[in-house]
Amino acid sequence: MRRRSWFAMNEPRTIPLRPRDRLYAAVTLVLAVLLLPVAFVRRPGRARELACGWALGMRFPAEDLTGLTDGARAAFTAARAEALWRHRQLIGLTSGYRDPAVQQRMFDEEVRRSGSPASARMLVLPPAESGHVKGVALDVRPHEGARWLEEHGARYDLYRLYDNEWWHFEHRPECGGTPPPRRPHPGVGHVLGN
């Protein structure tokens, strides 16, 4: 297994978008526009979100929002609809809810790889402490989408929590639009729900 560099884990890329990324974004937006009339018939008050969801579902077909809390799902759906319609930015979901057994397996594998539970906690939390198991954590892509969410996510109570994970955001409505202090990594001072 290749070890990720510290920089690659900390900050989204600042390299320019590849031509195909621009094409994907343009095609996804056109698709959302074409789906808008059907979405309006289905849900008049939420047509833009619905059309956006359908278009992004075609762009990121492996996404699964199942298991997220209602609040996290609604916040993510609204945030990425704004990102697409206002800023032409795509935000895909790499990982959301995780079954406790899957989270435990990930933690155990990281303990074996890194040599200790303390080292493992720098990248993976055990199930009892994981926002993924609670259904409030979202690992997003691409880098540009994560950057957009970091800038605008507070409107939706979505916050980046860890310096070493540019892709990881959590739905924290109790923060009321004020980002919580960012931690260096998941294992620092983590108390579930804080």
Structure overview:
Helices cover 48% and strands 8% of the residues. The protein has eight helices and four strands, in the order ααααβαααβαββ. Strand 3 and strand 4 form a beta hairpin. The protein is of the alpha+beta class. The longest helix is centred in the first third of the chain and has 24 residues. It has a four-stranded antiparallel β-sheet. Helix 2 packs across helix 3 and helix 3 crosses helix 4. The N terminus is likely disordered. It is elongated, with a radius of gyration of 17 Å. The protein folds into two domains: 42 residues; 134 residues, Muramoyl-pentapeptide Carboxypeptidase, domain 2.
Task: Give a brief rundown of this model.
This protein has 194 residues and is α+β, with helices and mostly antiparallel strands.
